[in-house]
Amino acid sequence: MEPNKQGSNIPQIKNEEQYEALREEGMSKEKAARIANTPNSGKKGGKASPYEERTKEDLYEQAQKIGIEGRSKMNKEQLIKALRNH
């Protein structure tokens, strides 16, 4: 992906290697970018903290980053379900 230029609408990818791997697997640009830009990007299998161990505020922020609608009305369990099913 082309580096982000000032004034450009091209998003900056934080984990370029992961982004390219996801694109090669057939993911859309949007979904690959969303995954590659998460705080835990690059961590594999169980190294990211489980949703149940995170605060509701952390879950809300994650839901906001990936664009889950209705998140402000969700409780912790609903946020977890929405994040897992997104």
Short synopsis of the structure:
The chain is mainly α. The protein is built from four helices and no strands.
Describe this structure in words.
There is one protein chain. With 86 residues, the chain is an all-alpha fold. It folds into 2 domains: 10-42, no CATH class; 50-86, no CATH class. Helix content is 44%, strand content 0%. Helix 1 (16-24) packs antiparallel against helix 2. The chain is globular and about 35 Å long.
Quote the distance from N terminus to C terminus.
24 Å
**SSE order, one letter for each helix or strand:** HHHH
Based on secondary structure, the structural category is: mainly alpha
What is the count of DSSP helices, taking H or I runs of 4+ residues? 4
**Major sheet: size, sense and barrel closure?**
none
Beta-strand proportion: under 5%
Shape: globular
Radius of gyration: 14 Å
Q: Structurally, how many domains make up the residues?
A: 2
Work out the number of β strands: 0
| Mean pLDDT metric | 82
The low-confidence parts are none
